[in-house]
């Protein structure tokens, strides 16, 4: 780390995590987080109004924790980055309004950035600069996409995306029908460790010969979710116990099989040797292991940040902000809007 590298503060509030991160260059100095996940658990999904209120309460205390953790003051910060979208409109507004207030009061440049690009940029905090071009597999609760990254500061090229449920959404829905808490990724990951992934054959969406022509890099998880539901229902109807660990392991392997197969196909077809995986589902232990094992056979390097950096946090926003500052990108105008449907192709506003 060099003191000449920019000191960037990042604010994340697109969903249920209020995150404030501070980085210098590629070095993580603070990653403070407040989550309203427990308040949403009984509804089985994030309630937008509850999330917005929680952000409002958490933003200032989380900011102070981050500054303390990094041992810096607001005056020391060179630039502020904030998630401008995509995400829940009311939740985004809290972070954007807060960041603009700070930028105005402390006279700092502000960067409104894309949450999804930030999920890719965060890996630089763990593994250093991203070799470009790279293929990025982005798998979260709201998105599942395969992207080609030639220059992260300028934008990404979408290769494919889910045509129905996101991968994280499938984990959340399957967990719910197995009686596990929300969010469903972590409990399925844990249960699957004691299950047999080969015990039940669940469908691999969009992998048939015809699909591979029309939807080579797209995903579909809705049929898989329905297949799991039917299988569990049939068991219950027959009065037999549901082998929860086996169902979890077989479902998880079906998701990871499709994700890794298509991501590596994208790398090979484009002659790219680096695959970076980001988003909440990248925290999945099986996905990481399967990707590494399969990639090794082709000489492809897989980069996955540690689990805490995969799920939503402020450090990822700071990491993308730092990348934009280093690339000489002009800051956003102070009147930029939060954009709940911000397209993936737009890195900043
Ligand atoms: O990126 P993220 O924190 O928020 C969004 O931008 O959506 O992703 C949250 C998603 C949830 O669906 C959650 O179940 C999933 O990531 N997730 C996991 C794991 N940890 C979180 N999915 C599978 N395995 C995990 N270990
Ligand atoms: Zn996310």
Which helices and strands occur, and which strands form pairs?
Blueprint: E1 7-12, E2 17-24, E3 27-35, H1 37-41, H2 48-70, E4 79-85, H3 89-106, E5 110-114, H4 115-121, H5 123-127, E6 134-139, E7 144-151, E8 155-161, H6 167-177, H7 185-192, H8 209-214, H9 222-237, H10 244-270, E9 274-278, H11 285-296, E10 301-303, H12 307-310, H13 314-326
Parallel strand pairs: 1-4, 4-5, 6-9, 9-10
Antiparallel strand pairs: 1-2, 2-3, 6-7, 7-8
Helix pairs in contact: 2-3, 4-13, 6-9, 6-10, 7-10, 9-10, 10-11
5'-O-[(R)-(carboxyoxy)(hydroxy)phosphoryl]adenosine binds at residues 15, 140-142, 168, 171-172, 183-186, 189, 279-281, 283-284, 311-312.
In angstroms, what is the radius of gyration? Answer: 20 Å
- The proportion of strand residues reads 15-25%
How are the strands of the biggest sheet laid out side by side? 3-2-1-4-5
Strands, count = 10
Order of helices and strands: EEEHHEHEHHEEEHHHHHEHEHH
Bound molecules: 5'-O-[(R)-(carboxyoxy)(hydroxy)phosphoryl]adenosine, zinc ion
- How would a textbook summarize the main sheet? 5 strands, mixed
The helix/strand class is: alpha/beta
Global mean pLDDT: 96
End-to-end Cα distance: 28 Å
- Contiguous low-pLDDT stretches (5 residues minimum) are none
Which bin fits the share of residues in helices?
A: 40-55%
Number of helices: 13
Shape: globular
Pfam families: TsaD
Family: Belongs to the KAE1 / TsaD family.
Binding site for substrate: 138-142, 172, 185, 189, 284
Catalytic activity: L-threonylcarbamoyladenylate + adenosine(37) in tRNA = N(6)-L-threonylcarbamoyladenosine(37) in tRNA + AMP + H(+)
């Amino acid at each position: 780390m060099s003191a000449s590298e920019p000191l960037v503060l990042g604010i994340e509030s697109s969903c249920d995590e209020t995150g404030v991160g501070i980085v210098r260059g590629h070095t993580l100095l603070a990653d403070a987080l407040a989550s309203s996940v427990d308040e949403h658990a009984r509804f089985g999904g994030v309630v937008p109004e509850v999330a917005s209120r929680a952000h409002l309460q958490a933003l200032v205390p989380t900011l102070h924790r981050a500054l303390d953790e990094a041992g810096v003051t607001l005056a020391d910060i060179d630039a502020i980055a904030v998630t401008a979208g995509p995400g829940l409109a009311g939740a985004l507004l809290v972070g954007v309004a807060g960041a603009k207030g700070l930028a105005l009061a402390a006279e700092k440049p502000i960067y409104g950035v894309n949450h999804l690009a930030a999920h890719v940029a965060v890996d630089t905090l763990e593994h250093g600069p991203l070799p470009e071009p790279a293929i990025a597999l982005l798998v979260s609760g709201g998105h599942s996409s395969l992207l080609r990254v030639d220059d992260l500061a300028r934008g990404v090229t979408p290769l494919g995306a889910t045509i129905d449920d996101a991968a994280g959404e499938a984990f959340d829905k399957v967990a719910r029908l197995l009686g596990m808490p929300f969010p469903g990724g972590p409990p399925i990951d844990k249960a699957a460790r004691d299950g047999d992934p080969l015990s039940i054959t669940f469908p691999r969406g969009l992998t048939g010969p015809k699909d591979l022509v029309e939807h080579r890099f797209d995903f579909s998880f809705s049929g898989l979710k329905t297949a799991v539901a039917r299988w569990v229902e049939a068991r219950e109807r027959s009065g037999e116990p549901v082998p929860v660990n086996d169902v979890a392991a077989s479902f998880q392997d079906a998701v990871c099989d499709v994700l890794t197969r298509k991501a590596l196909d994208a790398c090979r077809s484009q002659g790219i040797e680096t695959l970076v995986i980001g988003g909440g589902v990248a925290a999945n232990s099986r996905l990481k292991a399967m990707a590494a094992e399969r990639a090794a056979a082709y000489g492809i390097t897989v980069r996955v940040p540690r689990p805490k950096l995969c799920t939503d946090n402020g450090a990822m926003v700071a990491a993308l902000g730092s990348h934009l500052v280093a690339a000489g990108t002009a800051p956003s105008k102070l009147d930029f809007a939060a954009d709940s449907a911000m397209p993936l192709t737009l890195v900043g506003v």
